[in-house]
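Students often ask why inverse folding is considered easier than folding. One informal answer: many sequences map to the same fold, so there is more than one right answer. In these notes we will look at a single instance of the problem. The structure comes first.
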């Protein structure tokens, strides 16, 4: 099994984007947008499950690949080590890049 099929790569990106919109909606107190974002994620997961366990595995690999890419990008933008970024993610304290960088 590779990094996931193209369909799963796109689904993983859509889940990440929907989760981002979900968090923005929570910050704004927009219950409609929050529900819409949650529905998108649930629909993608249901569709993936319907395609079978190989599709679920592929989606998980795609999500992992996107997460790794994001962690590497944050590491480079923040001038911090990859391990420091992962530690921050685990603690829920990922900072924003220094505006002067």
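Output (designed amino acids):
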């Amino acid at each position: 099994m590779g990094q996931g099929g193209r369909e799963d790569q796109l689904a993983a990106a859509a889940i990440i984007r929907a989760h981002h919109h979900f968090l923005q909606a929570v910050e704004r107190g927009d219950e409609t947008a929050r529900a819409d974002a949650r529905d998108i994620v649930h629909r993608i997961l249901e569709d993936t499950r319907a395609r079978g366990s190989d599709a679920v595995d592929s989606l998980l690999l795609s999500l992992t690949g996107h997460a790794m890419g994001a962690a590497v990008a944050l590491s480079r933008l923040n001038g911090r080590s990859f391990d420091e970024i992962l530690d921050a993610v685990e603690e829920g304290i990922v900072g924003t890049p220094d505006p002067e960088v």
